Amino acid sequence: MNHATDRGPSTTRERARAERTAPAPVGVVIATRNRSASLAVTVRHLLALPERPQILVVDNASTDDTAAMLARDFPRVRVITLPVNRGALARTHGVRALDTPYVAFSDDDSWWAPGALAAAARHFDAHPRLGLLSARTLVGPAGAADPLNDLLAGSPLGTATDLPGTQVLGFLGCAAVARRTAYLDVGGYHPLLFFGAEETLLAYDFAARGWGVTHCPDVTAHHHPDPGPRTGRSAVVRRNELLTAWLRRPLPHALARTRDLAADARHDPHARRALRETLTRLPAALRARRPLPPHVERAARLLDTVNGATS
């Protein structure tokens, strides 16, 4: 007796049809606020992907026409509207709402290359310890390589036999894919950081829980940031870097980084703002302080040495 029909699609055409109708294993979460025009471009690129991923937009309390634009032009895209701007925590709302095993993150000015999400899913399928994957990022219409690509590819943490790519403790938020269970296991982005260099702390948390974080350049994301100035961005980044030190690093390291910022604050108004905001949030950081396990701290120190950070 021929039992071929009991084993699923048996012809090339039937298999292709099954693959087209099967749900994609990677969903996409987009955090946005008041950028409806660039969001529309992002959504169009994501809807055109051959992987046909679920797309979920988390709106950080936009006051422009974001909600109307999505309802009018993209009725099939899921939307969560937050009552207040929650910054990077919007991504966590999206992860909780999706049911795909893997979740890719886009901002309202970034999207994924065709085939990138399928490549990411293959890495996660083949490496059960992989918690988060950092992609190669191409910037702007010319597709210039983001300098972060080389920095991540050259990570001194090297490779691991049970992980793809190079081990890292950092990534670009709009060019990352996470295992959903791992992301929820570590709790997602920290509420103290909002936006700006918030990725390092999340990478620490993945590693502290035993999940691998790697850079895989065969997975590609496109980023089209606004070329205009980002007023105050440097202060926010320095604030979050310092809060990350207080949340997870040894006290001598956090104190040294604080002294560095205080010295800069004497002549730099952005540093003064960063120091002031850090001190305001420091009590909450101390209450939430959870030092890194020794093996992760050793990796962080190795990266400090390469990057020239004080310790």
From TrEMBL:
UniProt biased composition (Basic and acidic residues): 1-20
GO molecular function: glycosyltransferase activity
Keywords, comma-separated and alphabetical: Glycosyltransferase, Transferase
Organism whose genome encodes this protein: Streptomyces plicatus
Lineage: Bacteria, Bacillati, Actinomycetota, Actinomycetes, Kitasatosporales
PANTHER family named in the record: GLYCOSYLTRANSFERASE, GLYCOSYLTRANSFERASE EPSE-RELATED
Name the record gives this protein: Glycosyltransferase family 2 protein
A Pfam family the protein falls into: Glycos_transf_2
Organism domain of life: Bacteria
